[in-house]
Specification:
Length: 512
């Protein structure tokens, strides 16, 4: 009685769209034909689409092959070439040895010279090294190509949700750029506007956007972590981050920086500023300088071991002067508190506060008139479309319109109503954003210190830049404050009241 020989087929491509003889279908067909011609029964086919051969981690198909061989006696694992298994010589021999332990032979059907002979093993080792060499060489070329794209202002990676990668060149000479996805781009913009109002949680926002058609790449509802990543991604207003570098990109932004900042402010409010209280991203870097060396302060974490198991980290600001400045070290919390205390000394006078309030009233009144005018125009357009839809439904009931024509026109009219409803929603969202910003402005005019203290980090930086060009420190004490020209003008015009007997000028000696 003849025992049937069993085979498993494994296929892999690095790019899901890869063709030219190495697509998953081609690999599978060639391996299946080889198995049939040599009397093997294929008992399993595993694949890894869009997976690199330089790493074995994350290749579920390859892991399933090994598990299958451990669970069942498999005579051969078939691949089209050895580089499908691995492009790293260490992984190549590790996988071969693991299969050998299970009594399974690895066969590359396009490389018949590789067998168990001395010559075959030599050929196998040479090909493994060649595969690894070409992989590393290709990686070097790819890195140079990506760096060139970065220099040209093109984001050298996959586009985030809301954008798509587009080839503007040819298949032989591709020129890939990033453009706004006509389907998901407007939805991402809507997502930012809705979140900026402060009226939506991640949960409610994900459900609303799912109904509108914005999903994760797997087609599921966006998770909280995905929403957080989107709403904190600077790419959407044009600022790219890649490989530790940052710069403006040439892609078209979906939102502006103001809307992005408003979303960060909303997120901080939702967290009740807990992140601000527990973590530091070194707020004062670029603002505080050393009085002795006129050098800007930098900051870093220092770690202390209290026992064998516990480790504590403490942040320190210090002078960046070359050669060191040992007397400048001061804890992050202490220096940030001292700088915050500077704001206790300032108060806008009543005339300035009244002026701000009047400007706000004028802005709100003008905005309400404009908003109502725009809102009424949209409502009128919506009524026209709604009347057309109602008339079409009446024609269907009367039997004077064909069913196919009705369905086509009804979908079009219903879509038009949805577009107008979205325009109405956007008007309300914009009004909510304006009111939130106005609230922040009024709070600042009433109590500078309190508003600064409760603001998220990104707003604190704006406040610091509004009031101070530089704050000088010596031996853990603030010794001099340099005002911004705008702040100095307000003080000279007596719009700023100084609550103590000192003035924050360049020649001020302060010890808060």
């Amino acid at each position: 009685m003849t025992t049937t020989k069993k085979a498993i087929i494994y296929t892999r491509v690095s790019d899901p769209g890869q063709v030219s003889g190495l697509s998953l279908d081609v690999q599978r067909e060639k391996c299946s034909k080889w198995a049939k011609d040599h009397g093997f029964q294929v008992v399993g086919i595993y694949e890894d689409g869009g997976k690199t051969g330089t790493k074995t981690v994350g290749r579920d198909g390859l892991e399933d092959v090994i598990i299958h061989c451990q669970r069942e006696k498999i005579d051969v694992v078939l691949v089209i070439d050895t580089d499908r298994i691995a492009r790293n010589e260490f992984d190549h021999f590790s996988i071969r040895n693991e299969l050998k332990k299970q009594g399974t032979l690895l066969i590359a059907i396009n490389q018949p010279l590789i067998d168990g002979s001395a010559e075959g093993l030599l050929m196998d080792g040479m090909l493994a090294s060649i595969n690894a060499f070409y992989s590393r060489l290709t990686g070097r070329k790819v890195r140079k190509s990506l760096e060139k794209k970065w220099e040209d202002g093109i984001y050298p990676s996959w586009a985030p949700l809301g954008y798509i990668n587009v080839n503007k060149g040819t298949e032989e000479k591709p020129h890939r750029v990033i453009e706004i996805d006509p389907k998901t781009g407007p939805l991402i913009k809507m997502l930012f506007k809705m979140y900026a109002t402060g009226s939506h949680s991640y949960l409610s926002l994900s459900r609303i956007m799912f109904k509108k058609g914005l999903t994760a790449r797997n087609g599921k509802v966006l998770s909280d972590s995905s929403l957080q990543q989107i709403l904190s991604c600077t790419f959407y207003y044009g600022w790219m981050k890649w490989g530790g570098m940052e710069k403006w990109g040439i892609h078209k932004p979906l939102i502006n920086k103001t809307l992005f900042d408003q979303c960060q402010f909303t997120a901080a409010k939702h967290r009740q500023f807990l992140v601000r209280q527990r973590k530091h991203d070194f707020l004062l870097r670029g603002v505080v300088l050393c009085s002795k060396h006129d050098s800007r302060f930098t900051a870093e974490w220092h770690y202390y071991h209290h026992d064998h198991y516990k480790k504590q980290k403490i942040g320190y600001y210090h002078c960046h002067f070359q050669g060191g400045c040992s007397g400048s070290y001061i804890e992050v919390n202490e220096l940030e508190k001292r700088v915050a205390n500077l704001f206790k000394n300032y108060q806008f006078d009543q005339e300035f506060i009244d002026l701000v309030r009047q400007k706000v009233r004028d802005y709100l009144n003008d905005g309400r008139k404009t908003l109502e005018s725009q809102r009424q125009a949209i409502i009128n357009r919506r009524k026209v479309v709604e009347d057309k839809r109602n008339n079409l439904e009446d024609l269907l009931v009367a039997g004077t319109v064909e069913r196919e024509t009705y369905q086509r026109q009804h979908i079009k009219l219903h879509g038009g109503i949805e577009v107008l409803d979205n325009e109405l929603a956007e008007l309300e969202h914009q009004r909510s954003i304006d009111v939130t910003l106005i609230d922040e402005i009024l709070a600042l005019s009433r109590d500078i210190y309190k508003t600064y203290s409760t603001a998220p980090t990104f707003l604190k930086r704006h406040y610091l830049r509004f009031f101070f060009e530089a704050v000088y420190v010596d031996e853990k004490r603030i010794t001099k404050v340099v005002e911004t020209p705008l702040f100095a003008t307000l003080r000279r015009q007596h719009h700023i009241i100084i609550r103590t007997n000192w003035l924050p000028r360049e020649d001020s000696n302060l010890q808060p």
